[in-house]
């Protein structure tokens, strides 16, 4: 069975901005999904902000292996309930790939626990992405670097937690650098942030970018069953202790009582 | 100038439970603050849930170098506004030491971005804490292990992000293990989680536990100025680029415009 | 094509000690290889100390995807040349799984850069391995813990570098704990250390241990081409710079000259 | 008592190359030691390759808190015995700061366990070092970046283990990036690699570089007693087990016997 990827897109600028629409006539989400679907191991569909539940019902998420997230103009419009739903699924093992301006999306900030802020400049300048972790699954098939001739600049400090591994670092013509590809694990879920993707440039039509996205979906996919137990804080009764112990000392809780949350 | 530590305590069980009151007649917060104040480098005060703003006004936090957090029975009573205030100060450089049942406190969950769940058993069993990172500042003055004869058991999986470093791992008589001391950096702030401290046992009167707490305050303290810029995502105008670049391509934003959040 | 695993064994105690021989009549290496070969994705063969080049010629290593290493009595007998050969292949992408007393093997110490020391006791005591990273590929199919009724104790501090991820922590009946499963990446190679496996107990016949070993081989396998460029420190001539620059200032090196090593 | 820093220098180019001599008339080691000694908390002395034991006797190292290492032309001339001595002291708690071309020095490669290779170009191009971890002790007093107008380029991949934390990332005019400041802990010792410092440019006279070096010495210093036990792998006899256990099963070792190494 292929990996079930869902490409989520805010899908606002495609409807309100002629430039963006001309580059992505069917929306960024469909451009990305099309690129993913060239990989037989992936079956990508899409979801957008305007759908009920933003297209991310409990049911849909339960059947999602990897979620990709693109948002920019209206992060605040995403309901907190859906954000929490996404976070819970990540902890259970759903992969999450956060794209470009999604650094400020609610699900990403929720899972990082930091501001996720950065410097930026929209000048169509040259970005060169260096592979600093060659043979990482996400860098498969890439040369030691690749170039995007026109991109928005993002500059450090990027206020995220120290990653598990850094895969890409970007060089910008205007003088900045940026950790453009980083991985984290949160619960059973693999998270990847990938920097490029400003909507006024044809970044998601770039062959190297598409390679990274396909690799990332394969990397983020956790084939094991959902770790639904991660939400519990079970009491282990004394009589079920793995080693024989006797209850001693004073107690707050009665047997079988739930803990405080 | 000494390190300004604030020991925050929910302070509920001390008022409602005779056992807890008999062990900590002036409250867990005062027992801990007294232990910290034996170190000339530390000046510890206290704050509790029942105070206005839970004792953590903007002003107070601005003058706090390291915050210690003990809560258990009513995490939900802590206002979201104060939680956000604490998180922001941590990102700016305030140290945070989370104690025992504080694993489920709102500020800790906010900063970790994970469930922070675990197994537990209240049986007064023996806990042996092993120093797995000797000569870490937090383990200063300790032997290779120390024992708490009566403690609540916490068992893995403890669903937190992979730490920067692990300092302690606990062995429990009933057969479980637990990563009892872990460090993270979030923004400019150092975070330490320390497991022991169930309120029905005299844990905070233990000399080794007190040593760990004093060490942890010294370790968590960041003497540099608050990193208030961490909340910003500044635009860098083309004409101020560090390397001369020309604006190219299409744009969404006007010069000087704030980014979307 | 299946993953080509090679199980390396010192193979001394099997020939000199009746107990060990009775448990592993064909040697620990064959017991492990047999367990691996029940996985269709793996094709395991063996190599031993006594063979020419210890069975690890350049050619053999070039055709090895994952190497497993068991040694105990005579680490010093392994030639430094073979150690260097193994290290180089790991950097190029060969997986390495180090077993039990292999913590003191030359290849492991070479790749860790630390003493890799620990406490130990040979008393056939109970070991309980806790999965602290559920849904990690190496823990696939395991419950939240498993028990080995008779094992040698290894206790912390285990002086290795902070790992990429910790998968298992062991509880011992005698009161110690140990990080029993840890991962590292060195160059393009994935490394896993797995604690159990004392030769006087039937550990490698244990079904959970065998599951871990099969999982670990699948995890450690890097399907990408060998990163042979990792040994080079190439000079990038000014005229081939990616951005046009002019040579300035004073120089030590002539164009095309190799760097100092 | 101040931190006892020793600045080690190969000290070859200062004697053989007019350019280098003109920039560092008393040697790179003295330039650095002078810069360190402006900090009252540091007492810096020097050692060079040509001295007996390269100036690093057992006695000298025992009295060294932090060692700085600059070498380039003749790494191979450093005796393996001294390398091992340095590594052992790092594991015991001595700080180590490796400078520029020291990436290929024997002690650094010994402690990293990887090739430590990189790309390079000697063209006097502009390097801009970005602080990606503001408020890290090593970045104290710096702005968000600083520039070295003429430096040798080092480019990724830099084949070192994933660091504890990354402090600096460099941008180069010719189009490359490099992780210019990284930290690791090995045993009880703190290690910092700092990229700049090509001998034909006046890098060590730069005020920002000097600030980093002073900060790094203060950061790397471990005030606790030497962890000499890190070299041992002690047997814990059954009768001294912390929890009462009975010896069971078969044994290889006699009581009190040393383990195999």
Topology:
Four copies of one chain form a homotetramer.
Chain A: E1 3-9, H1 13-16, H2 18-23, H3 28-36, E2 42-48, H4 58-62, E3 66-70, H5 80-92, E4 95-99, H6 106-112, E5 119-131, E6 145-155, E7 165-172, E8 177-186, E9 189-194, H7 207-220
What does this entry show, briefly?
With 261 residues, chain A is of the alpha/beta class. The first copy, chain A, is built from seven helices and nine strands.
How would you explain this protein's 3D organization?
The structure is a homotetramer of 261-residue chains. Chain A starts with a strand and ends in a 41-residue tail after the last helix. Chain A is elongated. Chain A is an alpha/beta fold. Chain A has a domain at 3-114 and 181-229: Class I glutamine amidotransferase (GATase) domain (Rossmann fold). The first copy, chain A, is built from 7 helices and 9 strands, in the order βαααβαβαβαβββββα. Chains in contact: A-B, A-C, A-D, B-C, B-D, C-D. At the C-D interface, α6, β5, β6 and β8 of C face α6, β5, β6 and β8 of D.
Keywords:
261 residues; Rossmann fold; 7 helices; 9 strands; elongated
Largest interface: C-D, 72 and 72 residues
- Please tally the helical runs of chain A, counting DSSP H or I stretches of 4 or more residues: 7
Q: Could you name the CATH topology of the domain at 3-114 and 181-229 in chain A?
A: Rossmann fold
Helix content of chain A: 10-25%
Amount of beta strand of chain A: 25-35%
Report the principal-axis shape of chain A. Answer: elongated
CATH class of the domain at 3-114 and 181-229 in chain A equals Alpha Beta
Return the CATH architecture of the domain at 3-114 and 181-229 in chain A. 3-Layer(aba) Sandwich
How does the helix and strand content of chain A classify structurally?
A: alpha/beta
Succession of helices and strands of chain A: EHHHEHEHEHEEEEEH
Quaternary structure: homotetramer
Rg over C-alpha atoms of chain A, rounded to the nearest angstrom: 21 Å
Largest sheet of chain A: 9 strands, mixed
Poorly predicted runs of chain A: none
Q: Report the count of strand segments of chain A.
A: 9
């Amino acid at each position: 069975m292929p990996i079930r990827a869902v490409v989520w897109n805010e899908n606002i600028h495609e409807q309100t901005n002629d430039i963006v629409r001309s580059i992505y006539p069917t929306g960024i989400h469909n451009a990305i999904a099309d690129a993913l679907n060239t990989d037989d191991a992936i079956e990508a569909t899409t979801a957008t902000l305007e759908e009920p539940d933003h297209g991310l019902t409990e049911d849909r998420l339960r059947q999602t292996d990897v979620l990709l997230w693109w948002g920019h103009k209206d992060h605040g419009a995403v309901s907190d309930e859906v954000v929490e739903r996404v976070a819970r699924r990540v902890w259970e093992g759903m992969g999450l790939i956060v794209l470009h301006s999604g650094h400020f999306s609610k699900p990403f900030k929720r899972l990082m626990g930091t501001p996720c802020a950065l410097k930026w400049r929209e000048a169509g300048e040259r970005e060169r992405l260096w592979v600093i972790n060659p043979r990482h699954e996400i860098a498969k098939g890439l040369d030691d670097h690749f170039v995007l001739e026109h991109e928005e600049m993002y500059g450090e400090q990027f206020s995220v937690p120290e990653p598990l591994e850094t895969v890409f670092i970007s060089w910008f013509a205007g003088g900045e650098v940026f950790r453009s590809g980083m991985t984290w694990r949160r619960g059973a879920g693999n998270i990847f942030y990938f920097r490029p993707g400003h909507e006024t440039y044809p970044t998601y039509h770039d062959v190297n970018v598409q390679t990274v996205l396909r690799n990332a979906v394969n990397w983020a996919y956790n084939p094991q069953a959902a770790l639904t137990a991660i939400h519990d804080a079970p009491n282990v009764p004394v009589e079920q202790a793995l080693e024989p112990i006797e209850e001693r000392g004073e107690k707050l809780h009665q047997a079988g009582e739930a803990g405080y949350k």
